[in-house]
Amino acid sequence: MVEHTVKSFDNDISQLRGLIAEMGGLAEVAIRDAVDALSAYDEEKARQVVASDPQIDALEAEVDRLAVRIIALRAPMADDLREVVAALKISGVIERIGDYAKNIAKRVGRVEGRVKIEPLTLIPAMADLAEGMVRDVLNAYGARDALLAVEVIRRDEKVDNFYNSIFRNLVAHMMENPATISSAAQLLFVARNLERIGDHATNVAEMVYFAATGEYCTERDRPELDEEMKE
After folding, report:
1. Domain that includes residue 151, residue range
2. Closest by CA position to 209, among listed 189, 228, 193, 186
3. Residue 170 maps to which CATH number?
4. CA distance 24 to 30
């Protein structure tokens, strides 16, 4: 981070980044714990995930207050303004990721105990991928790493493929085993929430790319992006 003449400005920016990192860490843990609770049918752990969500909401509000104060008092321009605006937008997206983790946790008690459904074994792998996207995009934000942001964007396709596979398997399972329709439908909601987490991580990556380069990354799979960043 480039140092400014006014040291307190640097402190404000560092605090803003720290809040985003804290939010992201809580969101990562929420995703992991929600899926672990689902895999183990652990309703108590699921309740803990739901109960922890207000922490993420409170941090988002703190980011909003700090960003508004920076804009009002420091009148940032160019790179600094992009940094503050990106933090505002990213905090809102992370809050939504936390909500998706909470939604997954809420499904735990609605899945009938020990239902033998193949997609249930795929969900943890899909969650690992989505959680990894969240972790890496936050690292990209902290380092202003446009290349890592692009790599995260490209990984979203793998999450989508997981979702499509789980969707097909669940629909087939429901047709063959009508008694499990209710539980299978809950798992479908879980997979959808994970797919949305991947989408949101991709949105954050696009914001990081803009904050780092001043350019919009609108075409998610352009191979020339890597070459441009290496030049």
Report:
1. 7-230
2. 228
3. 1.20.58.220
4. 10
Give a yes or no: residue 52 inside a domain.
Answer: yes
Quote the longest CA-to-CA distance of the chain: 68
**154-208 confidence digits (pLDDT tens):** 999 999 999 999 999 888 888 888 888 888 889 999 999 999 999 999 999 998 9
Asked if residue 2 is part of any domain, the answer here is no
Q: Where are the beta strands (DSSP E) in the chain?
A: none
Place of tokens 């104060």: 69
pTM: 0.86
Identify whether 1 is part of a domain: no
Q: Which residues are within 8 A (CB) of 144 and not within 5 positions of it... i.e. 6 or more apart?
A: 208, 211, 212
CB contact at 8 A, 56 and 21: no
Rounded Cα gap, residues 134 and 85, in angstroms: 19
The tokens of 201 are what?
């991580």
Number of independent structural domains in the chain: 1
**HEC-encoded secondary structure of 35-48:** HHHHHHCCHHHHHH
